[in-house]
From TrEMBL:
Taxonomic superkingdom: Bacteria
Upper taxonomic lineage: Bacteria, Pseudomonadati, Pseudomonadota, Gammaproteobacteria, Oceanospirillales
Protein name: Histone acetyltransferase HPA2
Gene3D superfamilies assigned to the protein according to its UniProt record, in alphabetical order: 3.40.630.30
Keyword Transferase tagged: yes
InterPro entries: Acyl_CoA_acyltransferase (IPR016181), GNAT_dom (IPR000182)
Keywords assigned: Transferase
Signal peptide stretch: none
GO molecular function: acyltransferase activity, transferring groups other than amino-acyl groups
N-acetyltransferase domain span: 28-166
Amino acid sequence: MAMTQRPDSSTLWRTTPQPTGWTWAREGSGRDARAAGRLVSRNMRSYWKARDMRFSLSVFLKHWPTQHSLLWRPRHRVHGLLSWTLSGEHAHLCEFQLDEGYRGHGIGTALLSSWLLECYRQGVRTVELRVFRDNPAYHLYTRFGFWALAVDPDISGFMTMRCRLDERQKAHIERLARAAHVPVSLSA
C-alpha cells in the first residue's frame, strides 16, 4: 500500500470542519509522537499482555511520519488519537484510541462518524482496520458496518475488518452521527 505524507489540514478536512477539540499532530514533533505512543501503550497493554506481546515505542515512532494523525488534548494532555493512511480509494485506520475515562460518552462515535464521512467525501470507498475481537471497539466498528475480513493466524483474536463506503453506508453513518450526544463538558 502506498503511503502519503502527512497533509496539512486544508487538504484533508476540506469539506467539513475538523472535529471539535481535535487538532493535527504537529509534524516533526517527537513530543506529540511520544504522547500518542504512551496512549496506545496504556490502552492496549492488557490485550498484548494476554498474548505475550509488548508495545515497541521505536516501531510506533518509525511509522508515525507516514500517518495522518489527529490528537485530542483536553486538560493539556493527549487523551485521544486518530491515525490513518490513505492510498487512492482506500484508507487504513491505524490507531483509534481514547483514554478509558472518556469512553462511553459518544466521543468515539462522533469522531468515527466524522472521519468516515470525510473519507467518503474525498472518494475513499474502502476502509480497513485491525482490532482484537475482545476489544469493546470491535462492537463500535460493527455498528458502523465493518465486518471481519480475516483473522490473523499468528495472533489470537486479532482480525482485519473492512467497511465499504457507498451512499447507503453514508446514510447509516449520518444516522449514527446524529444519535451521538457528546456532553459539552467532554467535547473540547
